[in-house]
Amino acid sequence: MPLPKAHRLKSRKDFQAVFREGIRRHSSHFTLRALSPSRSREPSLDTAPNNPQPNGCESLASTQIGISISTKVSKRAVIRNRIKRQITAALYKLLPQISPGWRLVLIVKPTTAESECVSQQFLQELEQLLAKAEVFDGHS
What we know:
By secondary structure, this protein is of the alpha+beta class. The protein has helices spanning 12-21, 77-94, 111-114, 119-132, and strands at residues 23-26, 30-35, 64-68, 103-108.
């Protein structure tokens, strides 16, 4: 099940902003880059709504998530796509708990393909990683 379109981080400019200004958190299989709503000044032209919002309403923007998985993880696209689907399924379950307005990039480490992880392990590790970055509502 893919993430809803409103929650996808797509443009190169958005990815670069998260890498440039976002915080970093690490786990055994992932690296999380997170850009808080207060740090993200303006949305890119690709994701900007047609009618601009006042500055006080930027916290109402949806959280956008991008997944980066390189060929260093696996040369086979089938394996990379399977890992990405498992991560997306785990993120889909965690999406209601995430505070609105965050921009997140999840980078998959090469050790992920070697350790036959299942979706439940991804869910648990992503939950710990997002809690460490204080992305959840109420920072739980």
